[in-house]
Amino acid sequence: MSFSEAANFIRQRQRFLITSHVNPDGDGIGAMMGLERALRKLGKEGIMILEAEPPKIFSFLPEYDRLKSLADFQHAPQYDAAILVDSPTLERVGKVADFLKPDIPMLNLDHHVSNQYFAPVNLVEPTFSSSAEMVYRLVVELGLAPDSGCAECLYTGIIIDTGRFRFSNTSPDTLRAAAALVAAGARPDIISEKIYEKNTLETTRALGKFIASLSLELDGKAAVGSFENEFITSEEYQRVETEGFVNHALSIEGVEVAAFLKEVEKGKTRASLRSRGGMDVNKLAGAFGGGGHSRAAGCTIMAPMAQAKAQLLEQMAKRLG
Ligand code: 5GP
Ligand code: MN
Asked: 273-310, pLDDT tens digit by residue?
């Protein structure tokens, strides 16, 4: 479907449930919040619900407390349509899926190449840098000029998914969207400071721990860092935000693919995967039931750390040829 059809989908309805994937990142959150503000401008209503409480790091975004979690609801609110942003599958929204009644119209707005086209109405655009950039395009299609709050949310989503305009998904259109959002009131200096210069001491120390854990594998073409379950479940870890850590692994000369492994539960290891483009990590993650994009993806491996690492390296080796 096209942006104009998605705009019509919105025009025809009044009250929307908006959600995104579990462990939402700045793109999922920025896209949800930017969309909700645009809906309000149209005199419509958006109820934003995530599975769990959203990460505090984005709490500088205006009216952040409008983002709710399932804990805030006894039962599903009334709505005419659901909009899922940045979520490649229905399962990725977690338990919010229990609120999505099968007979209610649903719009799937996403930029993941791994998107499963799971909704009756799918607006899936893998050439877009971010779901936030897609929401910007939709806002324009709806004939709106984003207000400064909307601009801040969407700009945040774009810088998160483009790594501050460094990744290959940064297109001329991405930069044009960012320019328009800055013109509308998003402040690049303030937003960058809020996101990137607000580390806790624990986060900075954890980055050191991640870097110390790195090993080079497969003739120096792969770098793997890891956090054991003991650290993940520690008191200290509660104040750690690991966004961006894995990119330090990818920045090593000669490394083509990087992984950050976290044993989130005993026998259950989450992997964050990054590539310079030579290896399609969406496919690599797919070997373990995960997905994402060709250069950034993730998956859960049902094995303890050492085995998960061995399984991952085996899959990487196959793909390095
Ligand atoms: P991150 O490593 O930052 O958690 O995720 C990188 C990208 O991969 C994001 O676009 C994210 O949505 C996607 N991703 C991460 N984990 C999973 C997963 O388990 N399944 C799917 N389908 N995508 C994932
Ligand atoms: Mn995204």
From this structure: 999 989 999 999 999 999 999 999 999 999 999 999 99
Neighbouring CB atoms inside 10 A of 220's CB total 12
| Atom 21 (ligand 1) nearest CA | 291
| CB of 157 closer than 6 angstroms to any ligand 1 atom | no
Ligand 1 touching residue 88 (CB < 6 A)? yes
Range list of H helices, 165-257: 172-183, 188-196, 201-213, 229-232, 245-250
Are the C-beta atoms of residues 252 and 263 closer than 8 Å to each other? no
Q: Distance, CA 28 to ligand 2 centroid (Å)?
A: 6
Strands 222-227 and 296-301: unpaired
Alpha-carbon distance of 154 to 177, in angstroms, equals 9
User: Which CATH number describes the domain made up of 201-320?
Assistant: 3.10.310.30
Fold annotation for 3-196: inorganic pyrophosphatase (n-terminal core) (3.90.1640)
pTM of structure: 0.89
Q: How confident is the model over 158-199, as pLDDT tens digits?
A: 999 999 999 999 999 999 999 999 999 999 999 999 999 989
**What is the residue extent of each domain of the chain?**
3-196, 201-320
